[in-house]
Amino acid sequence: MGNGLSEPHAIFPCLPSFQALHIVILGLDCAGKTTVLYRLRFNEFVNTVPTKGFNTEKIKVALGSKGRTAAFHFWDVGGQEKLRPLWRSYTRCADGLVFVVDSVDVERMEEAKTELHKITRLQENQGVPVLVVANKQDLRSALALGEVERLLALSELGAHTPWHLQPACAIIGEGLQEGLERLHAMIVKRRKMMRQQKRKR
To answer: Record-annotated residues binding GTP (predicted)?
Structure first.
């Protein structure tokens, strides 16, 4: 379903501001990234297989209750260890990042933290807003949100990286809408600040 490998450098021109927002979905394998993508795309649970390359979808998302919408171009990139060096190619020119973590998988939280901090510290990703999706919050053994925040050391992401931690259940879609609204607000705020800085120069 939209799976494929391609030369990342050739297909990611920086998008002008009026086009769909370029959002990259990252996270360790089996965190639920593709489930998030297809829940957003089809508003239903789609049984998925581990992503070998990437999945991509353009999706219009409603924002709040005033009938506003935003177009998002999502890139869901495989999270297996051998694929993670490719993440950098996909995040170039990204407007926002969605980092999905499995709230039940305590043993891999340290690994998730390492990958999250590594990708946000890249020079080209400085200041790019991050929505951290604490997936599988419906399960009894899921870590509390405060514990997820502590284990991922979100407070150490730095003042230049705006982030929001969103509890979610990708299978039923709970929390995803709220998370995307927060991500959109962070992107709009960042663009406004960048425009103001340009005017001051």
So the answer is: 27-34, 79, 135-138
